[in-house]
Amino acid sequence: MASKKLEEVTAVVTIAAPSDTLHVSDNFGDQISEIQKSGQAEVNLAGRKFNIKKQFLDDIVNQSILEGLSKLKNLF
Question: How far apart are CA 30 and CA 14, in angstroms?
Answer without folding.
Answer: 30
